[in-house]
Amino acid sequence: MKPLKVLIVDDSPVQLAMLRNWIEQDPEMKVVGMASGGQDALRLTAELHPDVIAIDMIMPEMDGFRVTERIMQEHPTPILLLTVSEQHATMSKNAHHSGAITLMLKPSPDDPLNIQKFRQTLKAVSKIKMVRRNTVKAPSTPTSRPAAPYQAVLIASSTGGPPILQTVLSRLPDAFPLPILIVQHIAQGFEMSLLNWLQTSSALPIQLAREGMEVQRGVYLAPSGTHLELLRRQGKLTLHLSNHAPIKGHRPSANILFESGVRTLGGNLMAIQLTGMGDDGATGMKAIRDAGGFTIAQDEKSSAVFGMPQAAIKLGGAQFVLSPEEIPRKLKEVLGLF
């Protein structure tokens, strides 16, 4: 198998050398070009046709956002943006707007786990098909039939998930009757920028989940660093945030959310397992299906990483395996929304 062709873009020669060294420690990847600025990056992208590009977000003359926008206009290629500070997390919505797949903190030389995560993320990003996405808000739906017996939609999402979430949420009408609770594995501090970015293309109100919040119609995103659970208090559906230990490295964990949903609502749930590494959410989705809930896994073709959907399918937790475009269509069909 030919190694992935990687182009790296950074104005620092030291950073370029480190990035190249880290990438080429993996025999499945090869750095085919190094650009010291935006114009170099545009030229080398056209000449080398890389499979994936890693771009430093902060550069003189042309920053990572502008470079990404130009590449996506001229030679669409999967792009991972790198930043050196969590303070830049507030800018990550610009990363999604520009066309980058995701944004992550640049690893430091004394952090082998993050160096390994950087390599894994590059590989995952390289698999994403670059297609134009409809960002037009879904039209208002004046009427809808009652959603019973389902009372909530729970979504698990990880690597490559944000653009899929955008596709799903942007195609649901503002009259969508069920609350939607989302666990997206994301670096701490990045969730608000993800939320703001998703809101630009969704007619549904999207909020960051808070302790004790009453669950109503709309979208609730789990904060990074805490588990999100669904509870019933005094007859009302509410959210609970907990700091229990991470589950297989994940906090929030989709399994925690899904299992809390089963305890609270039994099978009156719809659950969706999207792209991601590992198997978080798989046992929870199986529990929802066993309880009589409605379950969907994202298909392999559209998944950046098929790990999480595949785990749910292997356990028998997925009733349907669908593309991102088919998922909202199926939800509306089952709920009788026209």
Give an overview in words.
Helices cover 34% and strands 22% of the residues. By secondary structure, it is α/β, with parallel strands linked by helices. The strands form 3 sheets. A 7-stranded parallel β-sheet has the order 8-9-7-6-12-13-14, with helices on both faces. The chain has a 5-stranded parallel β-sheet with strand order 2-1-3-4-5, with helices on both faces. Strand 1, helix 1 (13-24) and strand 2 form a beta-alpha-beta unit. It starts with a strand and ends with a helix. The relative contact order is 0.11. Residues 131-148 have low confidence and may be disordered.
Keywords:
hydrolase, 22% strand, alpha/beta, 7-stranded parallel sheet, 338 residues, elongated, 11 helices, 34% helix, EC 3.5.1.44
Q: Termini, distance in Å?
A: 47 Å
Structural class: alpha/beta
Q: What percent of residues are in strands?
A: 15-25%
Q: Give the fraction of residues assigned to helices.
A: 25-40%
What sequence of helices (H) and strands (E) makes up the elements? EHEHEHEHEHEHEHEEEEHEHEHEH
Number of helices: 11
Numbering strands along the chain, what is their spatial order in the largest sheet? 8-9-7-6-12-13-14
Q: Main beta sheet, described?
A: 7 strands, parallel
Tell me which oligomeric state these chains represent.
single chain
Shape: elongated
